[in-house]
Structure formats: structure tokens, C-alpha cells
């Protein structure tokens, strides 16, 4: 396996092994933990107390090493794949690497290419939720929520620019909605990979939804956005400025239905 990331490489393959580690005998489980640590130590790029991982371990080519910081390639995916199921305290080196990776994600800031899960701000934010679950340090939850606020602003800006949304899980609004809800609830389950059944948004159906129209379900997404908008804000990376007040829009969520114009019931 030449690739390293969660989307296409070593870490993605390790993830199901760690999820099922209890099914292995002790010797094989210990070997799994040791090999994870050794591989990630060997391939990590450490700098100023932070850690990231290159997309692959091919023979070095002339020029600078390609660096990515997103769920599918880089520290965010490493953290989401290992933080929940690699036992805390099993390896001091692994514990330190995961925290160093989290610091690198925060220093890098939100992902400029988008707001989604695979290679966007929400996907990187799940690294913070994982570290919050692993360490119980509220700093990581605060950082996840700061990324959530920025991701909502990115989503609105892209909708305005293109006149259409992205209605899919891994790169669009659906994944963002799940991330926002997890920031509200303090949960860390990656959609489909961990939280296929876990996520249950409160459903308040309007009249048209009760008659079978799909738009009634949109009320869930609005509710998640409204809840996330009420979260306290943390200074964003680099600038020190707080998230613009204009994206805190809990009061601006329209609670009616586009089909029947009824209020939720």
C-alpha cells in the first residue's frame, strides 16, 4: 500500500481492523497497534510540535513534498481513523502524534476548497470531535464548533456564487448537516462509517410531509443549522477575528414548508 490517507490508503485499511480489534487474539491485536504506531511515526512530518502525513510513500521526486490537510489525505483522516479505536494510553507515541496532528489541523485552518467531509472544513472538523471524545478536553469541541461556523459561511458563499447547492453526503450539504448536529450534541461518529444508525435528528413534520412530500424533511436540516448557529464562537485560526455575526442566523431560519406553507406540527 503506497497511499497513506483515510480515503484511499493505509489508514483507511487500518480503520476496520481497529474497529474489530476485540475479535483478534491478544498477540495479533498488540501487533496491529505496534505496526500502526511504527508506520505513522516513520511517515509523519513533524514541525513545531505539529504532525501531518503525506499522501503517499512513493520514491521521493524532485521538488517539495506534496502536502495535503484534509480527511482523505493528511492528519484529519489519520485522527478520525485512529482516535476512537486505538486505545488511549496504549502508546505514548501514538497519543502524542494524534494531538500533534490535531494542532496541525487547527493551525492550517478551514479548507479553502470546500465545506464538505471528504476534502473540506467539516471533514477536518471531525478530527477535533474525535480528539474531544478521546481526551475529554473541551478545547477540541470549541475548535470543532468554530470550524462549523466557518463551514456554514462557506456553504452560503458557494450557493450564492453558483446558484445551486451540492446535495450529497461527502462533499455537500448532507454531510455538513450531520457535522453541525454532531457539534451541537458533542458526538464524533463519521457519517456512514460510524453513525449510520446513531444519528437521529428530531423530526417535526409539516402537513405536506405527513402526506408524503419530501420537502417536509428539510425541517431537520434547518433545525440542525439553527442549533449550530447558537453555539458560542471561538477566534478563527491565523486572524484572531471572531466568526462574522452575519452567519449566526438562528433567528433567520424560516420554519415553514416550501410546499404547503404550513408551520411545523
Structural class: mainly alpha
The helix content is 40-55%
Widest sheet, order of strands? 1-2
Q: Which sequence of SSEs, written as H and E, runs from N to C?
A: HHEEHHHHHHH
Low-pLDDT ranges: 197-265
Shape: globular
Strand content: under 5%
Sheet of most strands: 2 strands, antiparallel
Number of helices: 9
CA(first)-CA(last) distance: 53 Å
Number of strands: 2
Regarding quaternary structure, what we see is: single chain
Mean pLDDT: 77
Please tell me how large the radius of gyration is.
Answer: 20 Å
Structure, described:
The chain is built from 9 helices and 2 strands, in the order H-H-E-E-H-H-H-H-H-H-H. It is globular, with a radius of gyration of 20 Å. A two-stranded antiparallel sheet has the order 1-2. The protein starts with 9 loop residues before the first helix and ends in a 36-residue tail after the last helix. Helix content is 46%, strand content 2%. The chain has helices at 10-19, 26-43, 75-82, 92-108, 121-135, 138-162, 173-185, 207-210, 218-229; strands at residues 45-47, 50-52. The longest helix has 25 residues, at 138-162. A hairpin with a 2-residue loop joins strand 1 (45-47) and strand 2. With 265 residues, the chain is an all-alpha fold.
Short recap of the structure:
With 265 residues, the chain is mostly helical.
Helices and strands in order:
Elements (H helix, E strand, L loop, with lengths): L9 H10 L6 H18 L1 E3 L2 E3 L22 H8 L9 H17 L12 H15 L2 H25 L10 H13 L21 H4 L7 H12 L36
Antiparallel strand pairs: 1-2
Amino acid at each position: 500500500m503506497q497511499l497513506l490517507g483515510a480515503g484511499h490508503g493505509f489508514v483507511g485499511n487500518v480503520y476496520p481492523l481497529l474497529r474489530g480489534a476485540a475479535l483478534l487474539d491478544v498477540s495479533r491485536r498488540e501487533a496491529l497497534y505496534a505496526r500502526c504506531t511504527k508506520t505513522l511515526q516513520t511517515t509523519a512530518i513533524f514541525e513545531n510540535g505539529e504532525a501531518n502525513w503525506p499522501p503517499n510513500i512513493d520514491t521521493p521526486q524532485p521538488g517539495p513534498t506534496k502536502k495535503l490537510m484534509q480527511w482523505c489525505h493528511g492528519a484529519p483522516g489519520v485522527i478520525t481513523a485512529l482516535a476512537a479505536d486505538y486505545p488511549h494510553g496504549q502508546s505514548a507515541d501514538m497519543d502524542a502524534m494524534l494531538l500533534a496532528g490535531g494542532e496541525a489541523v487547527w493551525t492550517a485552518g478551514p479548507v479553502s476548497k470546500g465545506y464538505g467531509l471528504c476534502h473540506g472544513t467539516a471533514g477536518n472538523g471531525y478530527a477535533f470531535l474525535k480528539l474531544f471524545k478521546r481526551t475529554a478536553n473541551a478545547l477540541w469541541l470549541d475548535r470543532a464548533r468554530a470550524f462549523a461556523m466557518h463551514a456554514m459561511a462557506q456553504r452560503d458563499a458557494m450557493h450564492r456564487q453558483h446558484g445551486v447547492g451540492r446535495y450529497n453526503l461527502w462533499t455537500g450539504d448532507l454531510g455538513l448537516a450531520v457535522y453541525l448536529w454532531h457539534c451541537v450534541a458533542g458526538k464524533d461518529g463519521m457519517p456512514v462509517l460510524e453513525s449510520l444508525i446513531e444519528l437521529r435528528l428530531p423530526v417535526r413534520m409539516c402537513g405536506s410531509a405527513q402526506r408524503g412530500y419530501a420537502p417536509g424533511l428539510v425541517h431537520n436540516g434547518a433545525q440542525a443549522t439553527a442549533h449550530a448557529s447558537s453555539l458560542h464562537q471561538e477566534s478563527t485560526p491565523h486572524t484572531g477575528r471572531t466568526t462574522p455575526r452575519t452567519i449566526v442566523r438562528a433567528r433567520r431560519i424560516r420554519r415553514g414548508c416550501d410546499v404547503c406553507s404550513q408551520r411545523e406540527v
